[in-house]
């Protein structure tokens, strides 16, 4: 009994010391908000999960929206992501783990492979913008089949096919201080030059069954090997651009179309897939066409949009379901060197005037997360790590769009 009591006291003081490490950034909150701690997170990650609302990623008023935030019924969170239902919204507080399923079959003829950096930025976008990662993968597979080298005749580029006209303009207007150092290629061609590709084994850790390309990781370069390269053809830029665009869609629709607010809200809350359908329609068809279709056709709005958009929505939701029903999951680990490289990738996606000391950030991550282990895991630690980075400085918090 004495030995058991000593052990319990040791565990208590260990967790208390971990709490002390994070209390400078987080405060104790209601138990029904904290995530259910599962798996085997590191001690520091567990302390974050035990005391933190993972949605609270702002440290100061300056990183809060200056306009009405979305009401609870404009976002639909579900306790479980059902395998055969594609929800758009996801709440990182539901579970401490970040689980992304792999498909059991090919999608568009592709067995999608993601590198550990791809998976980090998928988690980064999913958590910071509260988007179901399987939905983002559904968009990726519909847009490019995972080929970040793809360039359409209309100038849409990268895994998420961000256009270098409307997409570029919308991001620059809505997040002007965030993306003004991103590069855009004015060329329109099917693919970039072979010399710009990262070797598949180097990037993915294995040889893919079908062509999946990632561009050379020079996100700060406008020209690589004499070829103009757009930022968004790098996965990290592309998935973040998609996340920011989806956030803009939600807030723009709510704040700029007040006459449609009650109608849209009732539609969103009807089933998990109605929000996913709405967001996909806006991503492909544009917010203007969507608002007109909602006004004239209400819940049958898709009948008022182009056939391309109707087909697009159907495919995105189908791909999303395929991922969610997959029996295997993406799993990887991150050494401190991996995290250092990821911090470098994060910082180059911000304006050059970002005044965050990235070396100090790396040092603090090493001191806190790697104090008692050599690696972090995607499933168990990634949410805590993203929370730590996002709350390290107010300028690193998720961006609010300019409406």
Keywords for this entry:
4% strand, disordered N terminus, two-stranded antiparallel sheet, single chain, 15 helices, 46% helix, 403 residues, mainly alpha, two-stranded antiparallel ribbon
Describe the structure.
The structure is a single chain. With 403 residues, the chain is mainly α. The chain contains 15 helices and eight strands. The chain has helices at 2-22, 43-51, 116-129, 133-143, 166-174, 176-179, 200-204, 235-256, 261-268, 272-285, 287-297, 307-324, 336-348, 358-369, 378-390, and strands spanning 101-102, 156-157, 162-163, 223-224, 227-228, 328-329, 333-335, 375-377. A two-stranded antiparallel sheet has the order 1-6. A hairpin with a 2-residue loop joins β4 (223-224) and β5 (227-228). α10 packs across α11. The longest helix has 22 residues, at 235-256. It is globular, with a radius of gyration of 21 Å.
